[in-house]
């Protein structure tokens, strides 16, 4: 039986979740060591060392030994229980080894993004005061030297750990040692340090700094048990088998990526394959052939756009086959009466069309995916339904950094127990209540702020008692700031953010997030923001896909000459694109009449972290965007 290949039994629904029991791991390092003992020679990581080189692999035994050597060396350099180790690294074997090595000695890791501004690194390092800092390259170290104070006291006591083969270029202040990775590991392996393995499930495991759209980032304090309760909840709730492969590209500096694309996979004996080039995810998936794929909606949206564009362009026999394949898939899924779960083709013609059409689409991700998960933002029901037609089980989940992150998800409660237009049932051990007093829209009385109660709730924000008191009602109870509702079967739907809701002049409330996601399904749109606070009608700020938009404008006979800035500045472009969106994307029942945008602002420049329009976790900095377009917004307001 396939289930025999699962590493662990599913957790009983009625277990207690206050802390570990029986053979539960008590820390992440202990979890790793259990996996090493259990999976030993099974492959643990696959990675491409340098562009053009073949993928290399190391097994669980080798990785476990590496993590332990890292722990010894960290301890030898003066990193102790309760300290922090900071990482400015992309996903890598080194990233994983440092996080588990720190955990082994009772230290917490603080991970940052390599593409963050130097000033953000400086703030986080000053706030978290790590004993040691690991950096991915000389370029990162150069930027640190430019942004940190020139006195050694402001730098980590145990120095800088530099990855890569290049010697340091710009050096930190005198007295701050720069360790080379190869020498660091060799010293750890040679060390006779017999450190005591940390054993406190409620000790800090990580400080994850939320990249807020306003103000300084806040350090979310997550314990071992915060994260482990998430992992144990989903262990063997999804069909993950020992030796399965995943394709890991979600940043581990984010809680969704670290908890599920790293720690969960280690728990389950999965062969973690790192994507080396984010622009070629599909190409690397063809080589990896993953059984599990975790991604954010933008990845699924692009997949949906690309496949449907090719379907639209098909002619002749190919067009007929696509039509037949869609019809048979829809009929099969309707007959099964399930949402989100893949329904295998059955019957001669259904299997034939599946082989001729859908199997080729599945092959774009390696042809071996058993299920995929979407998180970090809302997934369009249209996209989710299409992925189900393709033949993938696609489950949307919901959570926050402050909840380690899982609160609810489709898929975990078993086949046939998932629903579109929601984020599934609340996870085991977690309770959700809806505070309907948090807002006052009389048209939606069953909605309110989502309050999470459970073992996954953070301890608080590091060095920030005031911010902690704003969101922690009592230990283990967190005010999310998200709007939602629960149905009679316990399925949770997210309807927006409390703070991002705005009221129109007519008193109607608008929740922009799900509407923005709907607009971004257009192949003409890359980024979109909906606003209109205290105005008669809403308006959109859009960064278009310039190539796709120009091609569509030429087809429609609209002037597409000149620079991108000139095209986006023309009234004829705005009127044409607004009409396109009204016809294809701003339609009932998703959009109500008063929500449909009456005006459009086009921004030819992409919103990025470099121009300060996005946070490191790719959320739009609304205040900055509105300020940038203040003159155009004032004109709309009249």
Explain how this protein is built:
Helices cover 36% and strands 19% of the residues. The longest helix is centred in the middle third of the chain and has 21 residues, at 316-336. The chain folds into 3 domains: 24-224, Rossmann fold (3-Layer(aba) Sandwich), CATH 3.40.50.12780; 296-497, ANL, N-terminal domain (Rossmann fold, 3-Layer(aba) Sandwich); 502-637, GMP Synthetase, Chain A, domain 3, CATH 3.30.300. A hairpin with an 8-residue loop joins β1 and β2 (56-59). It is of the alpha/beta class and 638 residues long.
- The total count of helices amounts to 20
CATH-scheme architecture of the largest domain: 3-Layer(aba) Sandwich
Q: Which strands sit side by side, in order, in the main sheet?
A: 4-3-5-6-7
Level-1 CATH class name of the largest domain: Alpha Beta
Strand content: 15-25%
CATH superfamily of the largest domain: ANL, N-terminal domain
Dominant shape: globular
Distance between the termini: 68 Å
| Count of individual beta strands | 27
Task: Assign the structural class, choosing from mainly alpha, mainly beta, alpha/beta, alpha+beta, or little secondary structure.
Answer: alpha/beta
**Average pLDDT reading:** 91
Overall helicity: 25-40%
> Strand count, sense and closure of the main sheet?
5 strands, parallel
- What is the CATH T-level topology of the largest domain? Rossmann fold
Question: Which ranges are low-confidence, i.e. pLDDT below 50, for 5 or more consecutive residues?
Answer: none
Kindly provide the radius of gyration, computed on alpha-carbon positions and rounded to a whole number of angstroms.
Answer: 25 Å
Number of domains: 3
């Amino acid at each position: 039986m396939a289930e025999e290949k699962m590493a662990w039994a599913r957790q009983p629904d009625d277990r207690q979740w206050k802390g570990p029991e029986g053979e539960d791991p008590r820390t992440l390092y202990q979890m790793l060591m259990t996996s090493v003992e259990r999976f030993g020679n099974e492959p643990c990581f696959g990675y491409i060392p340098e562009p053009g080189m073949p993928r290399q692999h190391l097994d669980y035994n080798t990785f476990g030994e590496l993590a332990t050597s890292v722990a010894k060396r960290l301890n030898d350099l003066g990193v102790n229980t309760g300290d922090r180790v900071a990482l400015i690294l992309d996903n890598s074997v080194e990233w994983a080894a440092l996080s588990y090595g720190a955990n082994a000695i009772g230290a917490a890791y603080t991970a940052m993004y390599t593409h963050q501004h130097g000033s953000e690194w400086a703030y986080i390092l000053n706030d978290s005061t790590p004993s040691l800092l690991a950096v991915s390259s000389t370029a990162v170290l150069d930027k640190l030297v430019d942004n940190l104070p020139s006195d050694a006291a402001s730098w980590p006591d145990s120095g800088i750990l530099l990855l890569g083969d290049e010697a340091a270029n710009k050096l930190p202040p005198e007295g701050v040692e720069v360790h080379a990775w190869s020498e660091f590991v060799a010293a750890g392996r040679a060390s006779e340090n017999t450190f005591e393995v940390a054993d406190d499930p409620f000790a800090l495991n990580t400080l994850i700094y939320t990249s807020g759209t306003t103000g300084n980032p806040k350090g979310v304090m997550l314990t071992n048990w915060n994260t482990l309760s998430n992992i144990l909840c989903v262990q063997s709730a999804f069909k993950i088998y020992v030796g399965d492969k995943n394709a890991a590209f979600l940043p581990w500096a984010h809680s969704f990526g670290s908890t599920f694309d790293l720690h969960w996979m280690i728990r389950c004996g999965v062969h973690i394959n790192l994507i080396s080039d984010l622009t070629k995810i599909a190409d690397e998936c063809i080589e990896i052939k993953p059984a599990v794929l975790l991604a954010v909606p933008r990845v699924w949206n692009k997949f949906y756009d690309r496949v449907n564009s090719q379907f639209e362009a098909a002619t002749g026999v190919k067009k007929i086959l696509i039509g037949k394949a869609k019809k048979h898939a829809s009929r099969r899924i309707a007959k099964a009466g399930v949402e989100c779960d893949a329904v295998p083709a059955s019957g001669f013609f259904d299997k034939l069309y599946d082989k001729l059409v859908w199997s080729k689409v599945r092959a774009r991700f390696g042809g071996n995916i058993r299920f995929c998960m979407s998180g970090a933002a809302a997934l369009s029901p249209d996209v989710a339904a299409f992925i189900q037609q393709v033949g993938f089980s696609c489950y949307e989940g919901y959570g926050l950094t402050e909840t380690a992150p899982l609160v609810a998800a489709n898929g975990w409660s078993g086949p046939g127990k998932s629903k579109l237009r929601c984020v599934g049932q609340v996870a085991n051990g977690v309770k959700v209540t809806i505070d309907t007093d948090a807002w006052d829209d009389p048209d939606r009385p069953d909605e309110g702020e989502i309050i999470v109660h459970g073992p996954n709730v953070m301890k608080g924000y590091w060095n920030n008692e005031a911010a902690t008191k704003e969101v922690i009602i009592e230990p283990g109870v967190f005010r999310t700031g998200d709007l939602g509702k629960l149905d009679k079967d316990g399925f949770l739907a997210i309807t927006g953010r409390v703070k991002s809701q705005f009221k129109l002049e007519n008193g109607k409330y608008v929740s922009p997030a799900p509407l923005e996601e709907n607009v971004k399904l257009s192949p003409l749109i890359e980024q979109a923001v909906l606003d209109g606070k205290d105005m008669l009608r809403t308006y959109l700020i859009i960064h278009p896909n310039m190539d796709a938009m120009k091609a569509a404008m030429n087809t429609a006979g609209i002037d597409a000459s000149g620079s991108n800035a000139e095209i986006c500045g023309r009234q004829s472009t705005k009127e044409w694109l607004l009409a396109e969106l009204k016809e294809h994307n701003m339609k009932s029942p998703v959009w109500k009449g008063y929500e449909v945008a009456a005006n459009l602002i086009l921004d030819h420049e992409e919103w990025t972290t470099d121009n300060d329009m996005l946070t490191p976790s790719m959320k739009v900095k609304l205040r900055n965007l509105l300020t940038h377009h203040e003159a155009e917004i004032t004109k709309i307001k009249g």
